[in-house]
From TrEMBL:
Keyword field contains Cytoplasm: yes
GO cellular component: cytoplasm
Superkingdom of origin: Eukaryota
UniProt keywords, alphabetically: Cytoplasm, Methyltransferase, S-adenosyl-L-methionine, Transferase
One GO BP: methylation
Example GO molecular function: thiopurine S-methyltransferase activity
Keyword Repeat: no
Name of the protein this chain belongs to: thiopurine S-methyltransferase
Recorded catalytic activity of this chain's protein: S-adenosyl-L-methionine + a thiopurine = S-adenosyl-L-homocysteine + a thiopurine S-methylether
Main location: cytoplasm
Subcellular locations according to the entry: Cytoplasm
Length: 158
């Protein structure tokens, strides 16, 4: 069975970046996730103007959807290609700046200011850099993280 070996598969950062560079991103979905649409009221809980975190965001279409509703979106993704594709595919103007606290880290910020995407490892982020969040949307980040690193990645989010 493929399930056993795949369950413990370790994907290197280089392999992940290669997937984005070659467009081998079958995990990316062009449509909003139906569970987020169905349970959006649970995430929002009647609140507006939330800060919502997207770990390993890729170019998730839900980021623009929530930003269009007036929420602030903060994502983190190691692939610069994914972040540039996100802004390009949604025709969103943006600028990029280095993140001084993160060696080699960059932030891609929409000119409207409500979408901030960090290009770095999730393990390089801290609340002193990105602040606090009102909610988190993880469509598949946890399963993309190597099994031995899952608890560490959860600790970065909470």
């Amino acid at each position: 069975s493929e399930v056993g070996p795949q369950k413990e598969r370790v994907v290197t950062e280089e392999e992940w970046l290669q997937k984005w560079e070659t467009g081998n991103i079958g995990f990316h979905k062009e449509q909003r996730h139906p569970l987020l649409q169905k349970h959006l009221d649970v995430l929002l809980n009647g609140r507006s103007g939330l800060r919502i975190f997207f770990p390993l965001c890729g170019k998730a279409v839900e980021m623009k959807w929530l930003a269009d509703m007036g929420h602030s979106v903060v994502g983190v993704e190691v692939s610069e290609q994914a972040l540039k594709d996100f802004f390009s595919e949604h025709s969103l103007p943006y600028y990029e700046e280095p993140v001084p606290e993160i060696s080699g880290g960059k932030i891609f910020q929409s000119t409207s200011g409500n979408i901030s995407l960090y290009c770095c490892s999730i393990y390089d982020l801290s609340s002193s850099i990105v602040g606090k969040f009102d909610g988190v949307w993880d469509r598949g980040a946890l399963v993309a993280v190597n099994p031995r690193d899952r608890q560490r990645s959860v600790n970065c989010i909470v």
